[in-house]
Write a structure and sequence with these properties.
Number of domains: 1
Strand content: 35-45%
Structural class: alpha+beta
Largest sheet: 4 strands, mixed
Number of strands: 9
Number of helices: 4
């Protein structure tokens, strides 16, 4: 079954549907979401994308990303994909929206209207091996430093969103 994405205009108004790979080949603006998960220590959950992914395989990124299906609410899609990719659920709050367009590997484009969600989670993680090769928790300062020193280890959208997300999320609780 071919997977479809929701095409949108610059204000996130739906204008149609397109097959996911074609939308990425043609650089068509479509709706997506990114999920950033922190633990109670203020560390961010990173996912290492499976090498088998159709783009950006083997790169580190935020906990989960995806596309709502036609007719699916974005927040419901985000919750669904977090469970499918990383094997857990938590409350998600939308904190940011932005649009970006970047060239990827395999002659693909990301041109997305990104709904960015934030969540807190301290439990077990069970990544789906078809989605993620690995995961780790990393503190904000160490993460920002590593992205600066090794930008080619991270996905393009993650680098675009990272500082915006950190600016909009609470610091770790003081103990």
């Amino acid at each position: 079954m071919e997977e479809k994405v929701i095409l949108v205009d610059g204000q996130d108004q739906e204008i149609g549907e397109e097959e996911k790979i074609r939308a990425h080949q043609e650089g068509r603006l479509h709706r997506c979401f990114s999920i950033f998960i922190f633990n109670s220590k203020g560390e961010m959950l990173l996912q290492k994308r499976a090498r088998s992914k159709y783009h950006s395989g083997g790169l580190w990124t935020n906990a989960c990303c995806g596309h709502p299906r036609p007719g699916e609410k974005t927040q419901e899609a985000a919750s669904r994909r977090l469970k499918e990719e990383m094997g857990f659920s938590c409350e998600l709050q939308e904190i940011l929206q932005f649009t970006y367009k970047v060239k990827l590997d395999h002659d693909l484009w990301e041109h997305e209207f990104d709904h960015t969600f934030y969540g807190l989670y301290d439990g077990e993680i069970h990544p789906n091996p078809e989605e993620a090769d690995d995961f780790e928790w990393l503190g904000r300062i160490a993460l920002l430093q590593d992205v600066k020193e090794h930008p080619n280890h991270y996905t393009e959208w993650f680098k675009i969103a990272l500082e915006r997300v950190i600016d909009r999320t609470p610091p770790p609780a003081l103990h």
